[in-house]
Amino acid sequence: MSVIQSTGYPIYFQNPGYKALGDYLRNNRFSKIIILVDANTKRDCLPLFKQKFGLEFAYETIVLPPGEEFKNITTCVEIWEELSRINADRKSLVINLGGGVITDMGGFIASCFKRGIEFVNIPTTLLSMVDASVGGKTGIDLGTLKNQIGLFSNPAMVIIDYDYLLTVPKRELKSGLAEIIKYGYTFDKTLWETIHRFEDIDLNEVNELIYKSIDIKNEVVKTDMKETGLRKTLNFGHTIGHAVESYFLDSKEKENLTHGEAIAVGMVIEAYFSYKLNGFPLVKVDELKSFVKNFYGKVEMSKNDITSIIPLMMYDKKNVSGQVNFVLLKEMENCIWDINVHEDLLLEGFAYYAD
Length: 355
Hints:
Elements: E1 4-5, E2 10-13, H1 15-28, E3 32-38, H2 39-44, H3 46-53, E4 60-64, H4 73-85, E5 92-98, H5 100-112, E6 118-123, H6 126-132, E7 137-142, E8 145-152, E9 158-160, H7 170-186, H8 189-195, H9 203-223, H10 238-250, H11 259-278, H12 282-296, H13 303-312, E10 326-331, E11 334-339, H14 343-354
Parallel strand pairs: 2-9, 3-4, 3-5, 5-6
Antiparallel strand pairs: 1-2, 7-8, 10-11
Protein name: 3-dehydroquinate synthase
Function: Catalyzes the conversion of 3-deoxy-D-arabino-heptulosonate 7-phosphate (DAHP) to dehydroquinate (DHQ).
GO molecular function, one term: 3-dehydroquinate synthase activity
């Protein structure tokens, strides 16, 4: 597959990425190389990376505990202290090998340390391949509020290697598929037409969708890097989805949802808003709801849950002057953004999902 050129950095696919990384290390002579992983990717992905890369080089490994709950400033401080302990300097390089938590937080850590050191993203989950590793966003959560602290900072390169997906649990693969569904509804309906046939995850088919999804996101980002207009469409399903994800993450009585499971709920409800406000075809809303419930399972939310979820939307990054803004559909592949939804319709949307 050909290289995708993003805003100041290349996105490589499969083995050419490792060759490019080898050339990059030889040409830059970094004083220290740090590979940032979590416990899972250290076990499952680091050996594969070393086998695929094939180049002998000295490096330090920093291992994080896995999970969204560790994507916070406390973890960052611990990593900065570790970088200082091992004498990392401004000529050091961080290689982020992992899912969205690792690439988001690793990019943030590298971009702040010594006012910024170079980093490379090697995403190992479907979600991080099609979303978190591309676009220059880095960041961490504030408590349970998603991605509240961060900055735009580009990696030196991104390497996409589908073989890492063989290490990913099925639930996490399904989570990543939700972001591809988003691209299908907002930019390329052929993606949705392919996914709509899925009864289960088929990596052979998914691999064909990854390149197209990255290409879509990259073209959007090149047009609107700082999310002032078009890039907002990439948040379809996320205003509600992030609030649902945060609520379940904070609840002691409920099992955490994956990012994709929460975003799938958000897409169904926001597609319903699109039907009510923009005349988006109800048949496409029903189609999405049916698939989401069959594929991900129904997320049970009581009236009390919903009452607690709605205020969390106030922390969405797209909001302006205290107004919750949504990305809604007019038709397949046609979105509008900065749309306010009345609370009565919010409740109606949750009721539609629950029905």
